[in-house]
Design a protein that fits this description.
This protein is an alpha+beta fold. The protein has one domain. 20% of the residues are buried.
Length: 100
């Protein structure tokens, strides 16, 4: 309809993981960069991450980023070290993606 404005589409959440899509273990080793209350945060679904990668309980308890690029940079840096039951994402990747 010509009298209506264009529809807005806004991305509010990114998924970051060392493991590729389709990897059976990806869902366990993922970080989220999400826009909450006008700021971007890095979290794992349970706690947030500070500027130095320190984890605190509560999704919105980590650092607040005005720019999602900065939050994505932190998540990319932390992704290989995401740990579940004593194994990191890098360990999981090495276990399932051996060189030919």
């Amino acid at each position: 309809m010509p009298d209506l404005p264009e529809v807005d589409v806004i991305v509010t959440r990114y998924e970051v993981s060392l493991l590729p899509l389709g990897d059976i273990n990806r869902k366990f080793f993922v970080l989220y960069v999400e826009r909450l209350r006008r700021a971007w945060v890095v979290h794992d679904g349970h706690g947030g991450y500070g500027l130095l990668g320190d984890w605190t309980s509560g999704i919105d308890s980590g650092a607040n980023f005005a720019d999602y690029d900065d939050a994505l940079d932190l998540a990319r840096r932390l992704a290989p070290g995401v740990t579940v039951n004593g194994r990191t994402a890098a360990d999981a990747w090495r276990r399932t993606h051996r060189p030919a």
